[in-house]
Design goal:
16 strands; alpha+beta; tumor necrosis factor receptor activity; glycoprotein; tumor necrosis factor binding; TNFR/NGFR_Cys_rich_reg; apoptosis; 383 residues; Death Domain, Fas; Tumor Necrosis Factor Receptor, subunit A, domain 2
Length: 383
Amino acid sequence: MGALSVLLLLACLLTPTLALIATPNEKTCPDGDYLENGICCNKCPPGFKLVEKCLAEGMRSNCTPCPTGQFMEQMNYSPKCMQCKSCNKKKHEVEVSKCQRHQNTRCHCEDGYYTFVIDSETTECIKCKLCRSDEREVQKCTTERNTVCECKANFFRVNGKCEPCKSCVADCKHLCKSLPSHNSKDSEESGNGYLVHVLTGAVVVAVMLLMLLILYMATKRLIKKSPLKSSSQTAEASPESSEALFQNEEVSIIAVIDCPESALLGKANSKLPDCVPLEIKTHDLIYTLLDSVPVTQVKQLVRSLGVTETVIERAELDHRASKEAHYQMLKAWADSSSQASGGGGGGRGGMLHSALLQELLLKLKHMHLGAVAEELETKYSIH
């Protein structure tokens, strides 16, 4: 019995080790190929789309050229090519090069207009600025940048307007005359007074920076000790039908730290300001957008947020329901934005800087969806 017990014990100890040894390494494919059902298939080159995937090792994928009016600019295994862009003459665009299978149409702004970049894939032609009578042209308007104007001589800029020089200021040095010698004592006293004001201002700024640093360190230490609680009160419950579509999605948190300076200075003690930090659940934010933004404008919104056409096409291919596809597009933006801002992606606890949420609000207002932006600002107490 004793020998049998020893043999059973050894078998129990060796079984996990043998299982690990027997586990094959995950297969990897060379550059330009992708893994499909354990087989490395080649991608289609630019200008082509996928007709049929390879069926066995050593076989090649069946690709066909994009039809007229469509293009594909990169290696892919998509069954659809993308639609060519048309230059909009009503929006002052002119065609520079026609659409080809491997390249989209190239458009530039017509003379008298320059390209205003909205995001990585969206631009708009804006009429070039004309310098006013009290300004002179420093840089001519080009297709890439607007006219640059500055105030004429003997003028200085105040609140965006050029005003004539009347006293000694930075842009009116010609009015800064040296005082007579008998007033040298008064000049010296005036100079000393100016120096005192400068030093006083520097001390005040240094004290404020020190207070902010102390508050930051205390906040950081307290956050490490106390895990943040989910702010379920700031996000309304999503419809049950929408939750059923995405019940397997992991809930990620977007934490927005957006405090006015006055709030920080007013709370220079161990207690944290009420505005640090505000937590927003990613899926709650996306549900709010899907409920508020018209269906016909969702793709325009995600394009303006930087989501590529490839991601949009993939979401539409993978999900038949438009709402589910739109959800995946917005989730792709949240994930990539969190990674770009150092938030670690879309997993639990991912951080999204307030500037990115402000960008979302700006895009909504630019699309004439100010009511949706105001709804988000009210719902999440964004100032």
